[in-house]
Amino acid sequence: MVILFSVLNVRKITLVCVLIILCLNINAQTDSKEKPVFKTPPEYDEGRPLFIQGHLPDISLGKMINYNNPTAWRSDFGDKLIIFDFWNTHCAPCIRQILYNDSLQKELGQYLQIIMVTKEPKEDVKKFVNKWQLQHHQILSIPIVVEDEVIKSYFWNLYHPSYSWILPNGKFIMQSSELYINKDMLRQILYIKPKAHFNLKN
Description:
Blueprint: H1 2-32, E1 64-65, E2 81-86, H2 92-108, E3 112-117, H3 122-136, E4 144-145, E5 162-166, E6 172-176, H4 183-190
Parallel strand pairs: 2-3, 3-4
Antiparallel strand pairs: 1-4, 2-5, 5-6
């Protein structure tokens, strides 16, 4: 009887120890789980990529082709609305859009500056532009930033083409697809009305 009682006690003690170890492991796993951190958007002039209404500093745009200087600063475009067109030479929708964008640039160039932006090498893009101009029998009027690593860091670009809209004061007002690149949308943003003056200060 004594031996049986001892065996039962050992089993009880063993079971209690196992339960204690399990509880400790569960608590440890619970404590080690990463707790969610809820972040509020940074101030408008802080951080990148920018939030809508954020501010793009007066940055150097880097290497440029199809432009009268090898580079430019954002502020060089004065009171114009800037649209950064993120694209690449292997993107069929991007290529289809170039002709229409070029026509908008020529028509609304007093108020608008489209700037094509790609991370591709300068020589590859120059070859593409030459081929495009021969094919369409016209000179491309849009400047192109090549080998870009800076501009793209300020914006979310999950697809190509993607367009970032910047007011003259540097305010980031919209990120869009090519569907919003049209005369009606541009006239609304540019406040262009018959015999009305142009205002983009707000």
